[in-house]
């Protein structure tokens, strides 16, 4: 009898539609490589009448996700609905019912991944989530397998296409954030509600997943410090460009000698020659430093229907291949060590900040005094756009502790002669 794996798909939006497209369009090649036929047995959607990105035969469609995860004829559940609930319950039920699960859902994995892995181990099945981080870039597999022999010292990722598109356009066109965001929404490059993307949550989810694998631990998403790009103005981009920097929203994971790990998400001014500075538009990239591999960078589409779906289907094929060989494929993410996250106040960086000040004697001295009192050493000061009594001051510090920088800034904010602190951006990677 022909060997078949039956897939139940939950969600048929952008990513789910891509999964249907690839499974149907490339069925022959997929069967050849996987060693068995991968049959799309059922597709559960919320609204049967909705127009879908890829047409699904009516007899495959249903609306009962709970019935699907309890259906004994289904081998693999593919979850593409996103969000924490009801995805969490559906995944847990599927795993408890002895089904492998493939998901593209970074939020549910970031929040409940450890719990899922425990249930999966208890029931002899596996959980796959390559598509949850950087869509079409095989970074999970790369870290879990090909780079597993390395001690990873650092990961830096551009892992959000929406914000990278906005920052690229701001850099290229000199436009303001709100204008570019509105344009991106019109073109379909940003969600109608883009808050998770632009406020940094999306990248924090992805960093907690990647860091867990890279640093062999399990990190809570809530322990990751994150900032978005709402505070980046056209002026910041312009000043950065003149200084030879590009501003990108990055996720940073860095191992400390004391065993703790630095995890943070925020905009960074990076040198324009850094490999990540050339990653533009909706593309993603992850830069890794490993003890044996040295520096390596993964680059590609971080989102989109087919790139993300190709990662999902790749995971389903992995399940099929392991089943064919009669071997289970327990995650190597099992013997993880407890590691603490370094509080943001303890990180060290150079900082850029821009102030509007009154242009009169003693103003710079007062700012320098506030920095000195907080042990913040200034690397460069530039006064620009002096108009009448108002001036713009741009300061870059030497490498200092974040807590010292925040202390200096709090004192600077209190100065009568400082009318605005426009931005504080960390400099360098
Ligand atoms: N919304 C994400 C992005 C893609 O803009 O990159 C899915 O994680």
Describe the fold and architecture.
The chain is an alpha/beta fold. It folds into 3 domains: 4-135 and 305-332, Rossmann fold (3-Layer(aba) Sandwich); 139-301, 2-Layer Sandwich (Dihydrodipicolinate Reductase, domain 2); 346-427, ACT domain (Alpha-Beta Plaits), CATH 3.30.70.260. The chain contains 14 helices and 17 strands. The strands form 2 sheets. Strands 7, 8, 9, 10, 11, 12, 13, 14, 15, 16 and 17 form an 11-stranded mixed sheet that branches. It has a 6-stranded parallel sheet with strand order 3-2-1-4-5-6, sandwiched between helices. Helix 1 (14-25) crosses helix 12 (305-325). The N and C termini lie far apart (56 Å). The model has no long low-confidence stretch (mean pLDDT 94). L-homoserine (HSE) binds at residues 106, 160-162, 197, 202, 302-303. L-homoserine binds next to helix 7.
Structural class: alpha/beta
> pLDDT average, as an integer?
94
Q: What is the percent of helical residues?
A: 25-40%
Under the CATH scheme, the architecture of the largest domain is: 2-Layer Sandwich
Whole-number radius of gyration? 24 Å
Number of domains: 3
CATH secondary-structure class of the largest domain: Alpha Beta
Low-pLDDT parts are none
The tally of beta strands, per DSSP, is 17
Sheet having the most strands: 11 strands, mixed
List the helices and strands and how they pair.
Elements: E1 4-10, H1 14-25, H2 27-34, E2 37-44, E3 61-62, H3 65-69, E4 76-79, H4 87-96, E5 100-103, H5 106-122, E6 127-128, H6 139-146, E7 152-158, H7 161-173, H8 177-187, H9 195-198, H10 201-214, E8 225-226, H11 234-242, E9 245-255, E10 261-271, E11 283-290, E12 294-301, H12 305-325, E13 348-358, H13 363-373, E14 378-387, E15 390-397, E16 400-401, H14 402-414, E17 418-427
Bound molecules: L-homoserine.
């Amino acid at each position: 009898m022909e060997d078949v794996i039956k897939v139940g798909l939950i969600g048929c939006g952008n990513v789910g539609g891509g999964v249907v497209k690839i499974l149907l369009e490339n069925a022959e090649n997929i069967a050849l490589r996987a060693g068995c036929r991968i049959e799309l047995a059922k597709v559960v959607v919320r609204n049967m009448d909705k127009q879908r990105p890829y047409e699904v035969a009516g007899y495959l469609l249903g609306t009962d996700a709970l019935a699907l995860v309890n259906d004994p004829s289904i081998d693999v559940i593919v979850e593409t609905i996103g969000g924490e609930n009801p995805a969490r319950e559906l995944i847990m039920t599927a795993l408890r019912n002895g089904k492998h699960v493939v998901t593209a859902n970074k939020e549910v994995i970031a929040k409940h991944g450890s719990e899922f892995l425990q249930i999966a181990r208890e029931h002899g099945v596996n959980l796959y989530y390559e598509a949850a981080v950087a869509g079409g870039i095989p970074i999970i597999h790369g870290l879990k397998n090909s780079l597993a022999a390395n001690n990873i010292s650092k990961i830096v990722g551009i892992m959000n296409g929406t914000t990278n598109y906005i920052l690229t356009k701001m850099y290229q066109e000199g436009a303001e954030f709100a204008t570019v965001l509105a344009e991106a929404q019109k073109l379909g490059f940003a969600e109608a509600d883009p808050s998770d993307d632009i406020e940094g949550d999306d990248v924090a989810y992805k960093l907690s997943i990647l860091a867990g694998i890279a640093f062999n631990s399990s990190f809570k998403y809530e322990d990751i410090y994150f900032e978005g790009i709402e505070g980046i103005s056209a002026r910041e981009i312009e000043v950065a460009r003149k200084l030879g920097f590009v501003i990108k929203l990055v996720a940073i994971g860095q191992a400390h000698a004391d065993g703790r790990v630095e995890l943070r998400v925020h905009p960074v001014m990076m040198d324009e020659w850094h490999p990540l500075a050339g990653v533009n538009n909706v593309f993603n990239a992850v830069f890794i430093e490993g003890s044996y591999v040295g520096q390596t960078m993964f680059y590609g589409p971080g989102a989109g229907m087919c790139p993300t779906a190709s990662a999902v289907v790749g995971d389903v094929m992995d399940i099929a291949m392991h089943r064919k060989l009669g071997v289970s494929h327990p995650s190597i993410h099992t013997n993880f060590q407890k590691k603490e996250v370094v509080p943001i106040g303890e990180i060290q960086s150079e900082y850029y900040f821009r102030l509007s000040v009154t242009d009169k004697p003693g103003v710079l001295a007062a700012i320098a005094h506030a920095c000195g009192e907080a042990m913040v050493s200034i690397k460069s000061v530039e006064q620009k756009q002096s108009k009448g009594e108002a001036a713009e001051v741009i300061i870059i510090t030497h490498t200092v502790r974040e807590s010292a920088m925040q202390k200096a800034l709090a004192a600077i904010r209190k100065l009568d002669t400082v009318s605005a602190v426009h931005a504080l951006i960390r400099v360098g990677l």
